[in-house]
Amino acid sequence: MNRKAVAMTVAALGFVVSPAFAYEGGAVSDGGTISGTVKFQGAPPARKELEVTKDKEVCGKTQKMSRDLVVSSGGGLQYAVVSITNIQKGKADNGAVVVLDQNGCEYQPHIIVVPVGKPFEIKNSDGINHNIHAFGKANTEWNKATPGFFTKQNKTLQMTFDKPEYVRVGCDVHSWMTGWFVVKDNPYYEVTDENGSYKMTDVPPGEYEVKVWHEKLGEKTTKVTVAAKGEAKADFELAPK
Amino acid sequence: MAEAKAVRGVNEPAARRVEVAIKKATGPGDDKVHTWPHLVRVEFLCSIFIIVLLIVWSLLVDAPLEEPANPAKTPNPSKAPWYFLGLQEMLVFFDPWHAGVVLPSLIIVGLMVIPYIDINPKGNGYYTFSERKFELLTYFFGFHVLWVSLIVIGTFLRGPGWNWFWPWQKWDLHKVEAMTNIDLPYMIGIRDPNTAMIFGLTAVGGYFVVGTLAMYGWIRWMKGAEFMQRWGMPRFMTTSFLFLNMLSVLIKMLMRHAGNIKYILVTPYINF
Amino acid sequence: MARRSVDIDDEKRSYSAIFLVSVGLLLFGAVWSIWDDNISRRPWKYYQAIFEEREQTKIADDIKQADAKLQADPAYQQATKDLTAARERLQNGETAKRLAALQDELANITVTFNDADLKLRIVKSRLEEAWYVYETAELEHRPAEDAKKHIDALNEEKTGLQKRFDDGKSRIEQINKELTEVRSEVKGLEEKLRTLSADRERLAQKLDGLTLKAGPFALPMIPKIRQVVLEDFERNNFDKPVARVDRCQSCHIGIDKAGFEDAPNPYKTHPKRQLIFGKHPSEKFGCTPCHLGQGPAVNSIEQAHGVVHHWDQPLLQGDKVQASCIKCHANVSRLEGAERIAQGEKLFEDLGCHGCHLVDGYEDLARVAPFLRRISAKVEPSWLVRWVKNPHEFRPRTPMPNFLFKEEDAMAVAAYLLSATKQEGDAWLETRPLPAGIDPNNATLVSQGKDLVDSIGCRGCHGFATDESPALIGTSKDIAPNLSKIAEKTDGRWLYYWLKGPRDYSPEARMPSLRLSDAEAKAVTSFLLTLGKKDTNQELLAKLQDPALADRGKVLVRKYGCFGCHNVTGMETESRVGAELNTFGGKTLEELFFGNRTDIVPSWDNWTFNKIKTPRTYATERIEQAMPQFDLADDDIKALRVFLASRTDLKYPPKYRPADQLKAQREVAGRRLVARYNCVGCHVVDGKGGAIRARYEDQMALAPPILNGEGAKVQANFLYGFVKEPVPIRPWLKLRMPTFGLSDKEATTIVDYFGALDNIETPFVHVIDAQIPAENVEAAKKLSSSDYFGCFSCHQQGDRKPEGPPDGWAPDLTMARDRLKPDWIITWLHDPQKLQPGTKMPSFFPGGPDDILGGDDEKQIRALRDWILTLGKPQKMQVGQAGG
């Protein structure tokens, strides 16, 4: 091996091993909070009902409404994901394993946040065959089955995403089932509730860029300064495209 | 004759030479130089320099390695070996029969005949120009001018299509030179082939007749009537014929270059 | 010596000076000759010396690294320490003493042993003698007791000596064993060290081997010519077999040695060395078969590279070297390292160059341009004139070249085409009236048509806006016409019948039928009629009626050779108008005419590039050029140029060519069909293509299936029937597999092509039901039930359809028996996503249930496969479906 090749190998290794943007989790003593509301601009369109075409005995028990644009009476946008984009050091992830459930032929929850590089689980509570087709672009696309016997035998499917991304997920058997994996690279990711509100706790003091993402309405960012033990506010309003 | 006091080498300084009255050479060999070392050393030096020349030439210029032999592809130009290039050059000006058969035969016959027509006793064993002017000049004309220079032309100055290329010019395969040569009879207005043949024969015949007479007069003036008588008619006629043929080559070449004259005698059998 | 009375000057003249000069000149000449002969004309000696230096430096570096590694290796260090200690012990201490004692004893015993040995031999000899004496005595009836007594005495002696001999021997053996034992530790450690440092030792030996040893001196190796002789490689101009000798490695010493990839030439390792030399070892192939050049020449770079007068095969530089690949490999499109010539060959075929230029091997390819025998029924006449005048104005990326016609000439050609095809065109039109229901002003109809266009697959080949280009020839030409201005060219009537069935209008149409219903065809036609606007020039129409104009047009058509690409009425027996290109690659500079282009540096490369770029560029006032202008991208021209460089009359003997020419030919035939019908517009074939898939990035399952491995996947007779008459397989696909109207030969070629790509030996499959174990069928039935994998929630099973609309259905499993190859089903079940990324079929394995077939995934897969095969009932052979 000549000198040039050795140098290149070392450089490559160095690049891989030295993580420039990795997040460091630890204790946060004087953390503040970021909270706010995500609102929908204008009058929301009516929610569509999703037609259950297969396995009606199991799936047709409850009415299925689309969850791609859920707005409360007060204009609050549910299922928006608010996150801090540029934080290097903060609280540690609680380490709990995230579980996505296929229940009543719907993904529970509709938007699920999973940590990057750590395995999460998918379980099937319906007793019939579901498959999870993750349409990743940065992450490799995969399509795995969780057949009916998973329910009885209490089996779960373990998967891991390598890169932060918003990954759409669907079931090919039951085409109305859609959901989203939000692969997070730091613990400060929150999904808004039915009123469109969210709250991030234990944020170390500093200036941050906060982003909101919604599956239909796109993204928006804003800057937020958090004081020690202070409460910062970041509201968003997303407009239809 | 008085001898020098001692035998001295020729390199000794003049100051030590014994003074002796200079007398004309009288003994045998007094007008000669010894072959060894005097001639031989000069010859040796000449050969050395020629060897050096050849070494330098061979180092600088490689023998040409041309394309792989291909029976389906004739090279252009297609040149004869160097010793025949003179004849190939003459093919430009003469009918192939004449340039390829007649003239070479005359060359060979002429060379064979030299001992019989040359009755000049002078110049045996030594070199002299003044005593053999005619002979040397004729030979010079025949060999250096006609034979060698034609070879030089054929080697260095003829390129693709046998067109003329100066040594500094690149050989252009597509060069086009206008062909504007016209037969002499046609040039002077004769259109009928028989008339042309008669004209041609007359001209050529006339040339030889007039030429022979001129030769006679010239040689007689040059060497004297007595010589002419001693020489004899057969020798004279032979010499004259050969000489006139040699001259005709030059004359025809000049006529071609200067006047674009192609042939003088035009017959279905032979052209000249 | 004669004496004389005069002095002659010449005798006195001294020639010493001249002699001195001549000596000097001769010396100069001699030295120069030696220098010239050994150094100037043998540059390879210099290169070999430099390379040796480089090699030595490299090996020295490697040794240093190996040493460093050994230094860092704890095992080696330990072993070295141990060895030193052991050797130390051997020198001093107890072991040393023992060793010494043993050696002493050995010395002594050896002496006595040798003595005993000698004495024994003597005694034996005496015995022989004694026996002779005795026996002779007996025979001669003489007293023999003395002799016998003598024998006995000798025997006694012998016994004694023998014992001493044996004792000595065994003692020696014993001592030797002990000695070995004493030394064994050291030996063992030395052995261990040797193994640990084996690499380094090898390198050191290599370094050693690079120099000659002469006493204490290490001399460089004597440079020598390295050559490869290829027996009977070619035939000379007299058709005699001759060997070829390649001496390239005399200067390019490192070409087949790894590790010199960064060195400058001639020391450099061959790029892609393992790929190229792996398949073409240099001892067997030499260098010039690929690179050309003058193999036997070594005296200078120009000579060796053949860049000299009269050598017609100079070294191929850069990409041009790929021109040699196609001399032996019939199919360069799958050859790693031959991408450029594959690109060039494809361009040559796809652009239709063979229509005007005869090239052996390509002369039978089909015409690439549309059928013109009914053109009067199709196009608007003033459009036709505009098109003929300059096609690139209407469609910038049309493969049709620009003939640079003047207006009158374009009119003449158009007039000829229209008049010559009037009869056939009118006859065709008579039985095809304009149907009711086509209306470009009906917004609903138009939007229906647009939806159809967007969803059934038109976009795999056609673009509908000026900048849309889904399917390209090379980098800049459209395979199928861009339809953004189609309404300017033709009318609804023609469009309708064309969409319903292209072969109805043109028997050789490349466009397939999408099996549109009447209503669908009307909707699409209405949509298409909104693209562009008719631009009729009435004056022009009147002029085009002139029969004299048509006659002139016929002359022009004949002159410019339109029939090379198009089927033109009245030109059926015409022959190609372009120059034959079989030996174009071997043209020398004298044979290339540069016209007035004094700005081009004369070379074959430049001539060819400029010729393809602007074909009439070499025209002069007296010399006309008729080749039309293609306006190709520069990159395409360079690729074409590599292909043209391969058109030479060099031929290589069969033993240097790949053995399996048949497979390559099958691949070539299939590849050409695939290109002709643009299968790669929709499908990925052999790793390439699938342009339309870009439209389905969010849901790859909606895209046409990838056909990699199709030969290994489907049964040949099914595929044959399918390409001739597609049947629905994937119910969720809006895209339609078109009906191409393939002939029997074409369908066979396609099936054969896929088989060749996957190295399929026997394309047929026979399922023997009796061999399928019942246990597997039972297990599979359970596995497919809704408690387990629930296969039938998506898969059709003959008449049993799954719940919900066809959008959510999967292929009919009863088709598997006749359609799929059993081994492929197993691969599929293992990981469907690997074979068809984005497919709706999920991966069920690994992760099969534990309670079926002992939880063994492999067994479960096999069971499923076996059972799937039983689902389909054996079909009766039908014409058109099984090679009939």
Quick take:
The complex is a heterotrimer of chains A (241), B (272) and C (884). By secondary structure, chain A is mostly beta strands.
Fold and architecture overview:
- The complex is a heterotrimer of chains A (241), B (272) and C (884).
- Chain A is mostly beta strands.
- The radius of gyration of chain A is 20 Å and the shape is globular.
- The relative contact order of chain A is 0.26.
- Chain A has one domain (3-238): Cupredoxins -  blue copper proteins (Immunoglobulin-like), CATH 2.60.40.
- Chain A is built from 3 helices and 19 strands.
- Chain A starts with a helix and ends with a strand.
- Chain B has 2 domains: 32-61; 82-121 and 128-259, no CATH class.
- Chain B has helices at 35-60, 85-90, 96-117, 133-156, 184-187, 193-223, 225-231, 233-259.
- Chain B is flat.
- The N and C termini of chain B lie far apart (67 Å).
- Chain C is mainly alpha-helical and 884 residues long.
- Chain C has 6 domains: 71-207, Helix Hairpins; 228-315, no CATH class; 339-357 and 578-645, no CATH class; 375-564, Cytochrome c-like domain (Cytochrome Bc1 Complex, Chain D, domain 2, Orthogonal Bundle); 659-754, Cytochrome Bc1 Complex, Chain D, domain 2 (Orthogonal Bundle); 769-871, Cytochrome c-like domain (Cytochrome Bc1 Complex, Chain D, domain 2, Orthogonal Bundle).
- Chain C contains 35 helices and 8 strands.
- Classes of the chains: A mainly beta (241), B mainly alpha (272), C mainly alpha (884).
- The interface between B and C is large, with 40 and 31 residues.
